Structures are given as C-alpha cells and as structure tokens.
Amino acid sequence: MPDGPLTAYRALRGTGTLRADAHQELAAEKLQSLHQALKGYRPSSGRDTWRSRLGLASSVALPPQGLYLYGSVGRGKSMLMDLFHTRAPVKMKRRVHFHRFMLDAHAFLHQWRRSNKQAGAGGKGRTPDDGIPQLARHIATEAWLLCFDEFHVTDIADAMILGRLFRALFELGVVVVATSNFAPDDLYRDGLQRDRFLPFLAVLKERMDVLALEGSTDHRRDRLRGKPVYHTPLGPGASISLNQTFVALTDDAQAGPTTLLVQGRTLDVPFAAKGVACFHFYDLCGKPLGAADYLAIATHFHTVILDQVPRLRADQRNEAKRFMILVDALYEHRVNLVMAADAPPAELYPVGTHAFEFERTVSRLAEMQSADYIGTPHLA
Q1: Residues 166 and 49 both lie in one domain
Q2: Which residue stretches of the chain have pLDDT < 50?
Q3: In this structure, is residue 104 part of a structural domain?
Q4: What DSSP designation does 63 have?
Q5: What CA–CA distance (Å, rounded) separates 59 from 77?
C-alpha cells in the first residue's frame, strides 16, 4: 500500500471526515511528491556550498524543494501539513508555529551575543547579527525538515534576520514546508525597511514551491455555522460547550500555552492550537493590558474562546474598558468570539463610568453571533 499524506487524505475523504475539495487534493498531491523525495534523504550540512558559490557542479545532491502553502483561514492548510509531517520519512523533523520559532530564535541570538560581547580576533567587535550562522547550525542539528504553521512576518526584528537565517538553513540542507494566510509577496507588506526583506522573498520562492489553497469553502467556519457562540449562564455546561468548540475547530490537535511578542515584551496565551486561543476573562481584562495586546491576539488568532465573563460592577470600570477594547479589536479583525458569560450582553455592565459606551460593545457582541459575521474571513 502506498504511504504518505495523499493516502491519509483520501482515507479521511473515504470515511466522510473530510468533504471533497479539489484544491486540497492538489495540495495533498504536492505534499505526496515531497514525501517521496524525502525517502532516504540526508542533508549535505553545507559541505559543497563553496562549489555552488563558484558556479561549479556540486558532488552532493540538492535537497528537495520545500512547499509554501497559502490561503484564507479554514481551507485545510494546517490539517494537510500535519498529515505530511506525521508521516514524513525523515529522522529529524520539527513542526512548530512560526511565531514560536522566531521567539526561540531571538532567545538563542540574545544568549549568543551575551556570551560573545568581547572583541573578536584583531580587536574588532562582532556585528549585531553574528550569531545567525550559529543559530542555523543549531536548528539544522535538530531538524532536517522544518514544518511551519501560520508563517507571518510583522516584526522588523524578525524581518531583518530571516534572509540570512533561511539562506543558511537551505545551504545546510534543511527542507522547509510552511502554511500561511499570505502569499509570499504580501509578507511584511509596508513594513519598515522592507527593501532589506526582499532578498528573503527571493530565496523563499527559489527554494520552495508556492501553492495557493483557495477553495470556496471555509471548512473551519462551517463548524461554527448554526451553533451557539454565546453561552449563558456560567457553569460546567457552558465550559464543556467551549471545550467541545475548541476540539471541533482544532481537530483535537495537541494544544498548550504559547506567547506573543508585543512591543518588545511577551504576552502569555494560556491555551492555543491551529489559530484558536482560549482565555479566561481575567487573563485578558483583569490585567493591565492595552490595545496593542488585543491587536496582537486579533491578528494571530482567527478564533478566541473566552470563559468566565462576569457581570461587571460599577466599580469595575477598568475591567469594563479593557473588555470593550478587546471586543473592538476582535470585531475589526473579524475574529470569531466564542464566549461563556454570566448574563446576556446587555446585562454585563449596565451601570458604571463606561456604561453608555458599553452599548456599542453590546451591539457588536450581538452581531458577532450572526451567520454573516461568522462567515466573514479573518482579517489578519
């Protein structure tokens, strides 16, 4: 029997777990071709890069071309990559959210630079990004195949190191597969010093096949259509419903805590997987967070599941204000909000300093339950 992601994908189709989708089938075929190319593959570890720089033929086979799979939310990108990654015939492989990967990369570079503050040979100091070759070698020793979920670049610190880092990874023979909501040319669009980012795009398109997965069906949002997204009152039943929604939206994927980088600091996300994040009310509104934090959540996650939203007292004006800003950020980015609250929207904050302004929040919470809103694509 043939193995690999295409066989697994067709098996899921056969059981009715997945519906027919020609765009997904094409992506599965591309991933199957890469699966076959990886059989018996071992990276060259950059042994012949000097020959390629001189335009000479290499004695080491070039690594298989990776795949960059992009399209709107809910088209099945992560599901297909997971089918590929779990079956990939590669000894050393890693599947990681791209944001988590970049946080780890910055942590490595920070530690390397702290350990190498002294002047180098000849008394000359090292340049700020001298740790990138060491970082690439560190990554390559742990993974010959890197699978990135939700590839997205918004931070100038990420943009400035990606070109050198990925060129080094490719020269070390690392094969990359990535999913993204953005076409390569739309990455870091209008970002600061974007001209310095463009060489990275050229390397990406040279070493990775680019495929758009743009079927007409948002399979993930289909799972919310016709189902309640606002649960009241609070209690075990509401929490169970939220958990069932999380499982349905993430295909019961392995989930856990993660962090977002916001203006040079980290924001903890208690539980997340496949673009869905779970919070308790006081995780987001009981702490001194602001618009930048909520915007980071709104751009990184297409769905937020929020539990334990209380009836707010008049003296809880800070919590009310933060909740209003949070809802505004989620609404503007068309994030699906699935929540459990102690009361209907109009009764959450009827009296207090911001009660009049809160009426807009009430209106938005009502609209965010509508089929039209749920069917609107996420605006990352």
Answers
A1: yes
A2: 1, 46-52, 56-59, 119-128
A3: yes
A4: P
A5: 35
